[in-house]
Amino acid sequence: SSAECAILNGYNILLYIFKSSVDVSLPVFHTLIKMASLGGTSGLNVGECVAIVVYLLSFNSDYLKRSVLLLIDDKFMTGSSVTCETWMRQPQLGLQVIYHFLSSSDASVVPVLLNLVRHTAPLWGPQEFKQTVAFLVDGDSTGVNVRAQVVELVIQLLKQGDLSPDAIRGSTGVDYVFCVLDSQEEACRHGALKLLTLLMRDGKTSRWFERANGFEILCKILQQHEVTILTCSALIELSLTEQSTLILFPQAMQIVLEVLSHCDKTDVILCALKMVLTVLENPYSVSTILAHGGIDWCRRFLHQLRVTSISDVVSEDPRVKAVVGLKQSPMQKVIGRLLMCGIFRDQVKHLRLKELTDNESLHFLAIREVVDHFDKDPEIPSFQASNVCRCLASLFEPLLETFPITDPSFYLNVVRIINRIANQNTDLIRNAMKEAALLDLRDSLILHCLRLPLTKAGAFSIMQGLSFEWIAEKQVFRDAGGILHLLHMFHEFPEERDLQIGIGCVIRNVICVIQENRKALLRMLEDGEISSCFIPEYNHKASEMEDDANDEVDRTEEGSKIMITFLDWYTDESQRQRYEATKSRIAEKLSQMEAQVKKAREKAVGKQAKRLKQQQERSWKASQSLEKTLSEADTRRSNLMNQLRMISRQQQAAWLQERDAATEEGGRELERVASV
Fold first, then answer.
1. 641 vs 178: CA distance, rounded Å
2. Dihedral sign from CA coordinates of 57, 58, 64, 67
3. How far apart are CA 119 and CA 167, in angstroms?
């Protein structure tokens, strides 16, 4: 009987006999299992018998392992909680034996072993989960790499309710998950993130996680490994509520941008940013991310990519260009959705506009998004008029002070958008624009375009993209040297006759129809003969040069003819000295005026540099404060992983030593019986 077999040390004797055999065949295993399955007093003890079978299997082929383990699964484990409990209680069995076979068997045996793990799951406690993690972090295990499959099985068991979350919850459970997350295998890291997502559905665990800087630790671990689309996808899933696109943990979305900024694969960056954009289609999620510092995340993302200036934004570096250099780039769209949420949902304070505009690349992308948005929809709700206009003014004003772009078309786009908003909205909105000084900003941007370093393309952009009617009569136009800049542009490109004609017509037909402008022009040119061509009522010289003028031609055509005739005379070799003297006089007056503008700009740039320095110092102090916590977490995790590896190897060694000792004892007992 089973009891007598134990008293006679029969199980150890059987172990010795079968291990000493040259070949233990499948029929022998069948017989042992059959004897164990008889039950009652006539059968062998199930636990002892299966322990003998499993130990003998470790010396046999994978084919034999698979066949016998399938038999054990069918006879004892499937549908029998009693036998599963026996397996888990038996000292010579348990999870460590299954994991020993998983690390040393080929792929054909793995499904059977995973099924055995599945059967034992309802009996797991913290100790069994610890054993599982010990197997997962033991990177020195040989054989088939099945750790990712084990992680996936644990996730599946948790979802199905076959594994109690109590076995994993708490600070220790999260520490174990972090150990798995630090794996060199992408599939394991992905599985660990999915496991963490399940744990974070528990309110107590999530609260502890946030208090213990769990997201910061998570970010640092992921930054030490290759960033993949799977990783980003799992992080985004972690950030959301279950079966929803609502943000639950915006910190996980922050980690996506942090890890992407260290990624050198453009396809991964673009794909992940598109996933982020999908989440941002939900207005609540946009609002939540913005309130948690979303704009600052974007700034750090650009900074890590070494995209800190306008020249970087238009860089030819493929990595940078793919992310921020394209008009429809995902990063720009992310910034745009956060920006529009702040502007239209009364969350301007979360935009931190001063810091936003101090960062050139972030400011540049924000302006492009504003232009794109109001190009498509220029209307502003009346109840948001004041807030939106003030916000736009705060975004546009720094363009005059510190912005480094010298292409007029960029600023002309902003001018066009301000005009479009004014034209497409009600008087209420226009009054709000006046109160926010948006219209004054528009005029200043026009003058700013005139002050930019002149190129042919820039001059053509200004003349084709601007209408001077709304600014010509304003005192600010004269005080800022608007007429002087136009005259400078007129003289700068003598080879571009069409450009000169266009500038001349604007001065004659738009600027000089105003008395104050005519006076200013006369003072600037100091030459009545030249001035006569630009002043409609004072064009004696011009009249002499247009004998064939037709009285019925319209004003524009008349002005063009006058300019053509005037330029033929003014650019003739006989007037060369006069031309150069006038050009020199204009340049001298312009340089005096620009000296004041340059001084004001240098002052603004100095203030900006001071703010950036203070911002960097604050960031550095915050990072130093956090670094100590992260360093301690790294040390704790490293020690825990070493401990778990040691446990895994010690358990396997202890199992083999115990079985060897039992075999030797069985041999000695057999010798003693034989001698009697």
1. 10
2. positive
3. 16
> Are 155 and 191 contacting, i.e. CB atoms less than 8 angstroms apart?
yes
Query: DSSP string covering 138-176, please?
Result: -TT--SS--HHHHHHHHHHHHHHTSS-GGGT-HHHHHHH
Which residue, among 201, 193, 308, 317, has the nearest Cα to 255 in the 3D structure? Answer: 193
Q: Two tokens at 117?
A: 């793990």
- DSSP character at residue 245: S
| Exposed e or buried b per residue across 434-444, where buried means at least 16 C-beta atoms within 10 angstroms of its C-beta | eebbbbebbbb
Whether the CB-CB separation of 429 and 380 falls below 8 Å is answered with yes
For the four alpha carbons of 331, 332, 335 and 341, in that order, the dihedral sign comes to negative
pLDDT at 66: 86
DSSP 507: I
Listed as ranges, residues in the chain with pLDDT below 50 are: 142-144, 326-328, 539-553
- What phi, psi does 134 have (nearest 5°)? -60, -40
Q: At what angle do helices 266-279 and 229-239 cross, to 10 degrees?
A: 20
Place of tokens 């003349």: 463
Chain centroid, CA 672 distance in Å:
73
Dist CA 446 CA 413 (whole Å): 11
CA separation for the pair 639, 320 (Å, rounded): 39
Nearest by Cα to 593 from 484, 513, 438 = 484
What is the distance between the alpha carbons of residues 659 and 51, in angstroms, rounded to a whole number? Answer: 9
Residue 103: how many CB atoms within 10 A of its CB? 19
What pLDDT does 427 receive? Answer: 94
What CA–CA distance (Å, rounded) separates 462 from 550? 30
Give the single-character DSSP code of 508: I
Taking alpha carbons only, the member of 241, 340, 352 closest to residue 286 is 340
pLDDT for 64 equals 82
* Cβ atoms of 633 and 217 closer than 8 Å: yes
* pLDDT score recorded for residue 440: 92
In angstroms, the CA 583 to CA 663 distance is 108
Q: Of 504, 476, 481, 474, which is closest to residue 491 (Cα–Cα)?
A: 504
Its pTM surpasses 0.70: yes
Which residues touch 286 (CB under 8 Å, ≥6 apart)?
A: 280, 294, 337, 338, 341
Residue 616: Cβ within 10 Å count = 11
| Distance between start and end Cα atoms, the chain | 22
Nearest of 155, 212, 249, 310 to residue 633 by alpha carbon: 212
Beta bridge partners, 247, equal 240
Which pLDDT score, from 0 to 100, does residue 416 have?
A: 93
Give the model's pLDDT for residue 94: 76
3-class state of residue 404 by DSSP: coil
At 555 the three-state DSSP class reads helix
H/E stretch holding 224: none
Q: Say what the pLDDT of residue 542 is.
A: 43
pLDDT at 541: 41
Check if the beta carbon of residue 240 is closer than 8 Å to that of residue 277: no
Residue 569 to residue 564: CA distance in whole angstroms: 9
